[in-house]
Amino acid sequence: MTTLRTIAIGIRVTLLETLRRRTLWALVALTVIVVLLSGLGFQFLVSETRARGTAELELQLGVSQVLILCAFMFSFILAATAAFIGAPAIAADIESGVLLAILARPVGRGAWLLGRWAGLAIVVAGYGVAAGLGEIAALRVVSGYGPPDPMGAAGTLAAQAIVVMTVTVLLGTRLPAIASGAVAVVLFGLAWGLGVLGGVGSALGVDSLETVGRIVRLAFPSDGLWRATIYALEPNAVIALMTEGRSLRVLQANPFFALTGPGPAFLGWCLAWVAGVLGLAMLSFRRREL
Amino acid sequence: MPEMTSSSGTDRGPAIETHDLAKRYGRTTALAGLTMRVERGEVFGFLGPNGAGKTTSVKLLLGLTPPTGGGGAVLGRPLGDREARRRVGYLPEMFRYQPWMRGREVLAFHAALIDLPRAERPAAAAEALGIVGLADRSDDLVGTYSKGMQQRLGLAVALLGRPELVLLDEPTSALDPLGRTEVRRIIRAARDRGATVFLNSHLLGEVELVCDRVAVVDAGRVVAAGTLDALLGGDGVRLRVTGLDAAARAGLDAFGPHRDEGDWLAFRPFARDRIPELVVAVVAAGGRVHAVEPERATLEERFLGLIGEGRVR
């Protein structure tokens, strides 16, 4: 009961902190601007190409690719947001001394970390899903085009952010806040880069590179989740068009194309991965000298 | 305002007890072996120079850091025990509170952490803020508080819910003289309602004015402990005397140990009510008394002596 109460307090404090700090509001404002501007961009793209008599399938291909590109940029922004919102939760409170007064109370360290993490997960996932769906909705309004699985796309974008945020929290139990956030963002970028390298390895038949890609997707599943986002944004017609007459191996080199969606095994692995990293963070925090 | 209740069987015995409590960080010894006992209801001063292990001791008592040797109990429970921590208030040396919270929210947050009944939380928070003189700033964000106000807020957090044991780590480091006087009053009031106050400080004057007993710690060990009277060696007296030869001076041995300082004779310890008797004896031995100065060693003198001895050893 005490543990549950501590977790609940941790969540409440984290949500209140997020609302009070201006960072999130600045992000929300920027996101609104980005959604509006990209909506205008899509409208321009669609109206221009339709005016030129472009086939609807090709238009769909073009729009879906631009949407994937937008999602790609947004995934980086979301990862950075997750890292920089997540980093202070434990690390900055250790550095500043705020945690001394808290942990002197009848509060379990593991429960406190879990509460902070859960609060951050709500914020990050909420922001990711809302911003992702907002972008997709803007596209639908201006072009009439909608990806096949908007919730899947927004959900996997949010899941990437949760992966990054969880790692940031783990790092924050040992490293200063800025270092934790920076390292987590670098890991995210590295995972994406190595994922692309793995895809190139598959296309070229270089087994070692392909293995690297597979290992990285398991070790840091954000890239695998990014692939899931792509798949959720691709209409079947586009997949058929892309695969027509092309080698499937070669297509794997395209970092903005996914032939298949994530299987339940991978999604299960992602859940287990987050739980495992969170467990490590709790263990590390329990042993941290204050 | 109901006070925090303790579990049965934990009210007996001292508020704090440690045996050879030790803490090492790698090769560095922060605390070599702390053995002390703090009785319930007293104000206990914990003195020592910087780096003596005072803050480490407090963190060990609260379970904020695990010991590498020895052990102890707080309010009859093992170090770090959560039930005991519910009944302990703590002002850290590095006092920082969420700058984005309002003063009253910090108190409400801590009231939730110690699971004060919901209905009692507003009154408890108002009481604690009132004690430290922050009632009129309770709606302001902590980020707008001065350093002194933040320390007052920390004191309010430590006093929230009337804890049985209050651990104050350098509670006046950011306060002006007026604030320090106020803190002494607050500490005495806490003792008067039955709380034990553990005052960690290197401000000797402060400790001298408010503590019932003290322990002096140096290089991670207690080098002296006891009541202030015992630690200071009691009262003394100095006499400016002429006309006494060596034999006559030796004849004053009956009044206890004394130090010959030329024209001055210093007796310590010396009961003040015997001063007239001493003056009569000096005159009877042929001496002339020019001045009589009752004196008491200051804690600072005793402290410097103790720490100096430790350094020489």
Number of domains of chain A: 1
Could you state the oligomeric state of the chains shown? heterodimer
Query: Uncertain segments of chain A of ≥5 residues (pLDDT<50)?
Result: none
Percent helix of chain A: over 70%
CATH architectural group of the largest domain in chain B: 3-Layer(aba) Sandwich
CATH topology-level fold name of the largest domain in chain B: Rossmann fold
| C-alpha-based Rg of chain B, rounded | 24 Å
Number of strands of chain B: 14
SSE order of chain B: EEEHEEHEHHHEHEHEEHEHEEHEH
Rounded mean pLDDT of chain B is 87
By secondary-structure content and strand pairing, the structural class of chain A works out as mainly alpha
Summed over residues and divided by their number, the pLDDT of chain A gives a mean of: 89
| Whole-number count of domains of chain B | 2
Radius of gyration of chain A: 21 Å
Structure, explained:
The complex is a heterodimer of chains A (290) and B (313). Chain A has one domain. Helix content of chain A is 84%, strand content 0%. Chain A contains twelve helices and no strands. Chain A has helices spanning 2-20, 22-51, 56-96, 98-103, 109-143, 150-172, 177-204, 207-219, 222-233, 236-243, 248-251, 264-287. Chain A is globular, with a radius of gyration of 21 Å. The relative contact order of chain A is 0.13. In chain B, strand 4 and strand 5 form a beta hairpin. Chain B has two domains: 16-227, 3-Layer(aba) Sandwich (Rossmann fold); 234-296, Alpha-Beta Plaits, CATH 3.30.70. Chain B has 313 residues and is α/β, with parallel strands linked by helices. Chain A binds chain B through residues 2, 5-6, 9, 13, 16-17, 20-21, 96-98, 100-108, 289-290, and chain B through 25, 59, 62, 64-65, 82-83, 85-86, 88, 90-92, 94-98, 100-101, 109-110, 112-115, 154, 157.
